[in-house]
Amino acid sequence: MSTTLAQVIATDPSNENGYRTFRLGKFELSRDEYFVTVRWPAKGQMRSHQMSAEAFLRACMRDVAWNFFYGWVNFDHVVGTRNLYGQVDMYAGSFNGVMKEAGVDYTERFDSAHIMATFKALLRDWVNEGFDPFAAPVETGSAFGTKQGENIEAIERSRIQTQRMPGLPGDSPLRDDMPVNRAFADVSQDEPEIVAEPGFEGQLHAFSLFKYLSRSDVTWNPSVTAVCKASLACPTTEEYILPVFHGNDRVEWFIQLSDEIVWDVADKNTGSPRARVTMKAGDVAAMPADIRHQGYSRKRSMLYVWENVTPDLPRRYESGELSPYPVDF
């Protein structure tokens, strides 16, 4: 058993519903047929918060698959994680203005490997057979009910980490063996024709991004499709609701490639509403470094996300060295 797995603390399965209860530092996480309950200490008492089991599992799945992503992954308005790159904060109420003012918030810091091992063990135990926390609701089974088998294949799915560009020798494949999603039946499956000048054969590459995205089997999970130094192209397909409120620690650029997404934008620290943004095909938006956002897509759509992974960006934004906005009008 690895050290990180040995650090996972869980009870035996419940006689009532079959699920284990997990302990992460001073946090206790349990689930029943419908809800996940998170407990933590504050002001001399144990506080608790409940959220839908389906919503919790979808959010936790993103944390695991994204390796805690950039900045904050708010499971809802109370609980979530903050990536410190090597360490991760888990919090309850710390970025909720009312709970923070009342002093009932709590944050605990963990090594990334420790909290990752606990979240993976939790998903292996709490995700039932037939439910895929990455799938759109109409494309998967139910997250609810007592313990019923497991779905290891779905929760072990890895986020695609392209080194340069899909389709290049030795790089990620072009998804030719995956079916076209029902929402993208009208998307051309033709690949571009490449004609290189003599002497430049094998030095030019191209692929159809629309075809590639039309064959994505997950929602709200960016795939790296082009890498140029610190510039990452991370397009994705979106349907229903982004399961988390993502809190930025850098500016994030969005280009709506098809259909429509509505974004709720709020203050990163308090959750107070700031804006509602409706993006239609062709629209471009920059999400500032000091906000959190959650998206809604009635029909499966394609979104191009551009990420800047220049080292030290979070510190430079947090210190005020960089403006949270890419441009001031």
Task: Describe the fold and architecture.
The chain has 329 residues and is α+β, with helices and mostly antiparallel strands. 16% of the residues lie in helices and 32% in strands. It has helices at 3-6, 53-65, 97-102, 112-126, 152-155, 209-214, 313-318, and strands at 9-10, 22-24, 27-31, 35-42, 45-52, 72-74, 79-83, 87-92, 106-111, 226-228, 231-233, 236-241, 245-247, 252-256, 260-267, 273-280, 284-287, 291-308. Strands 6, 7, 8, 9, 10, 11, 12, 13, 14, 15, 16, 17 and 18 form a 13-stranded antiparallel sheet that branches. α2 packs across α4.
Quick summary:
The protein is an alpha+beta fold and 329 residues long.
C-alpha-based Rg, rounded: 21 Å
Structural class: alpha+beta
Average pLDDT reading:
94
Number of helices: 7
Distance between the termini: 56 Å
**Overall strand count:** 18
Uncertain runs: none
Largest pleated sheet: 13 strands, antiparallel
How would you sum up the global shape?
Answer: globular
Q: Helical proportion?
A: 10-25%
Percent of residues in beta strands? 25-35%
Helix and strand element order:
HEEEEEHEEEHEHHHEEEEEEEEEH
